Amino acid sequence: MNIHEYQAKEIFRRYNVPTPRGYVASSVEEAVQNAQKLGGTLWVVKAQIHAGGRGLGGGVKLARSLDEVKAHAQALLGMNLVTHQTTALGTCVQKIYIEEGVEIANEFYLGMVLDRSQELPVMMASCEGGMEIETIAQSAPEKIIKVSIDPFIGFQSYHGRELAFGLNLPQEETQNFIHCAKALYEAYMHNDASMIEINPLVKTKNGTFIALDAKMSFDDNALFRHPEIVAMRDTSEENPIEREASEYGLSYVKLNGSVGCMVNGAGLAMGTMDIIDYAGGEPANFLDVGGGANANTVAKGFEIILKDPNVKSIFVNIFGGIVRCDRIANGILEATKMVKVDVPVIVRLDGTNAKEAVEILKNANIKNIISATDLSDGAQKAVAAAKGALV
């Protein structure tokens, strides 16, 4: 689950991560009132959407008068902001964040993510603040300093010193940086975050560090422990199809291809997408129907997949372990009665009662349901069907 910048900064403040003062606004009048409340002569007006690259997309504006605050608020609210992390249509800006200006001496990057290869959280820092971490990793990977942190011992001063030395910080500023990094680690761990990012983390002229931006995402499986974070969910920022799928217990992520995928198990789903790519196609989605798939979940899966107009074929790849393959086959037949399936459906079933399942599908004699002998055969047929070739 993702949250907005202003919400992430609320969490930061609980852990004493330094942030500028700011207030969220949903109208032009509220934006001007917030600027007046902050005082001063410099404000930053920021679009609040669940996407990075807002500055490059024109979603972050400096204002040196209340009239400029008003003009920027009028321009941003209701606009479709396009960044490298949105679709070509962009995302509608419904909220803006009015923040006090900060005198910047230097910009850095500071973030945390789980390194699955090490099975440890990793804190990353770079002197290239303001740039996307992916860009830095490609163009200048030596400028990213990484420190793995064992949760059993937690963040220690030597972790912070290693990062500070890598950033070439003066000795007198190291302690301030360590306090900031430790606070960030605690915010990450205590809230079951999957990713936390400050880009940029700025150093002011007096040597203090301030989180000028904030980005957080959370492990959905741990949200039951954090009702206060669940309350921050903004469903208007989520893909409506993905949201609908989650309500039915389906794990769905829309992609850009033409081969729809319906699979049971996340690992098998990832492997299915890989083999579709290997066969020369492109998956249209990730869809895990879970281990207890039945006719209703399969029907809903078809309905969700077919809401994507780019889907030209569907590859059903089910391993019958907890659920027998013959049940899945009958579920597929029932699902086609419940949902109009007007694209070729390639079915590969393996595991318990797989032979019986193949006979069930064969005897049904439904023209657009095609059995596959194995995973490779299924992928090749699905890709060919998506391209309009005979299968």
From TrEMBL:
GO molecular function: ATP binding; magnesium ion binding; succinate-CoA ligase (ADP-forming) activity; succinate-CoA ligase (GDP-forming) activity
Pathway membership, UniProt: Carbohydrate metabolism; tricarboxylic acid cycle; succinate from succinyl-CoA (ligase route): step 1/1
Leading EC class: ligase
Residues reported to bind Mg(2+): N199, D213
Keywords: ATP-binding, Ligase, Magnesium, Metal-binding, Nucleotide-binding, Tricarboxylic acid cycle
Cofactor remark: Binds 1 Mg(2+) ion per subunit.
Annotated catalysed reactions: succinate + ATP + CoA = succinyl-CoA + ADP + phosphate; GTP + succinate + CoA = succinyl-CoA + GDP + phosphate
Ligand binding (ATP): K46, G53, R54, G55, E99, V102, E107
Functional description taken from the UniProt entry: Succinyl-CoA synthetase functions in the citric acid cycle (TCA), coupling the hydrolysis of succinyl-CoA to the synthesis of either ATP or GTP and thus represents the only step of substrate-level phosphorylation in the TCA. The beta subunit provides nucleotide specificity of the enzyme and binds the substrate succinate, while the binding sites for coenzyme A and phosphate are found in the alpha subunit.
Gene Ontology terms: biological process: succinyl-CoA metabolic process; tricarboxylic acid cycle
InterPro entries listed in its UniProt record: ATP-grasp, ATP-grasp_succ-CoA_synth-type, ATP_grasp_subdomain_1, Succ-CoA_synthase_bsu_CS, SUCC_ACL_C, Succ_CoA_ligase-like_bsu, Succinyl-CoA_synth-like
Annotated GO CC locations: cytosol; succinate-CoA ligase complex
Record-annotated ATP-grasp domain positions: 9-246
Name used for this protein in its record: Succinate--CoA ligase [ADP-forming] subunit beta
Highest taxon above the source species: Bacteria
Needed cofactors: Mg(2+)
Family: Belongs to the succinate/malate CoA ligase beta subunit family.
Subunit structure and binding partners: Heterotetramer of two alpha and two beta subunits.
Protein's organism: Sulfurospirillum barnesii (strain ATCC 700032 / DSM 10660 / SES-3)
Protein's UniProt keywords contain Disulfide bond: no
Amino acids binding substrate: N264, G321, I322, V323
EC number: 6.2.1.5
